[in-house]
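hi! just following up on the protien thing from before. the input was this:
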Amino acid sequence: MSITLRLTFPGGRYHATPWGRHVNEGVPEWPPSPWRLLRALIAVWKRTCPDLPDNDVQRLLTPLVEPPLFRLPAHRVAHTRHYMPWEKKGPQDRTLVFDTFVSVGRDDPVFVGWPDANLDADGERVLCRLLSNISVLGRAEAWVAASVIPAGGMSSVTWNCGPTDEAHPNPLPVFCPDPATCFDSDHYPTIDPAKLAKGKVKPAQYLFDCPRWHLCLDTETIHAERWPTVPGARWVNYSRPEENIIVAFQRRPLARSQPTIARFVLDGPVLPRVTDTLPLAEAVRRVAMGCFRRWCERHPDEAEAFRREDVPDRFASVVLSGKDAGGNRLAGPGHTHYWPTAAESDPRRIGGVTLFARDGFGLGEVAALAAMRKLKVGELDELRIQLTGLRRTADLEQTLVGPSTVWQSLTPFLGHGEIGIRGRSRYLRKGLRREWRRLAEQVPDLRGVELRDIEELSAADVIRAGQPQPCEFRRCRSKDGGREANRAGGMFRLTFSHPISGPLSLGYANHFGMGRFVPAAGLEHE
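and the predicted 3d structure came back as:
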């Protein structure tokens, strides 16, 4: 019967460099070379199925050394560029590396066939066993799933890649085994038994425990001997469909909605204190807007929608900045809230930052957030920040976003500048009700919910919850110049007429971590 193999690449990529080419030449191997495929079968045989006799494996491989036919799926050649440690000129030295690969559909198979080959039932069983153990073909990134097509399963296949004659205008050389010499041993290195007995053989001279076939020669030996041709191999000219003839991939839009939550982790010699919530949030906003501006400079076509009207040569994200194209402050709650969160090991220190935007983060904002690396907050200039996850509001724990009827302060609610020190509690309650009415008008889900009770937390309640006192928090934004450093603030417990879903932030600097409320039942989980 004929032999047909089915290869799929779950990673959507085939990474391999043709024999004799350097990886930085940017030339991928396509189709997969038969020489590589047979050597992969030998590798999994010796590593995973050593019980199979040499004669059985040779009987299996003999019909496979002939040049096969291929049916190639839609594909595109692509590459990535990145810098690798070089250290030739010092510890900081880097070199640019090209990683070229063939991009294919994860479920689009490559068929490899030998229509004139014959394989008995025992040979098919051994071949199935070996193919099931192959996990990589080519470089480590080229994950593969291989199987045998039953007899008659590919009777109507149309092969689009196969050997051609010299008259072909653009032949493609493919590295194949040489049926006449691949099982010979003329060039297979030998070890002098006398030197081996005396221990004079270097470990590098030991070869793998394989039959003495040219097909089993390891790559290091081939390069070291500098043979003009590889023993047991030959180049065969193939004809292959041009890339522009094959159907191109269609970019499909994402079916899921934009993320509304971005979570970061902080690291550094000394973490900032919880009382520095406001300046840390401002620092995160500055870095995020800077990364977004650099993203716009690298993507001019996509950046036109973010061009500032007041400063035409600058770009800004409405979601990250909270200002429209004219530089005017947005009144709604749709833009980003920057919420520093306490570290699990030390609740007095800030160990992470959560960004929440009701309007969602677009592709540009996500790219900017992923590019954030360093922060400077006051004298702490060695802070590192890393994006750890993107989520939607519905994916958050109920202990953080409700729904709940009772909400309690996590950070102090700060009143407006006209609220003086005298009569602070009375005017803070009034300011809270005014802020709630404003938020309820802007968020449809909160309309009709009444704020029934406002209870100011005592010092004992705050200490018992592990919170610093409101007076210990920094209460002034950097743009205010310290004029309102004594702005009145306090911790409160709010009770509503109906359960509401958060997140919930009210008052001055509520987009910078202040005035944040969480369900009272879930305060200990924050």
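The radius of gyration is 33 Å.
The CA atoms of residues 65 and 179 lie 6 Å apart.
cheers
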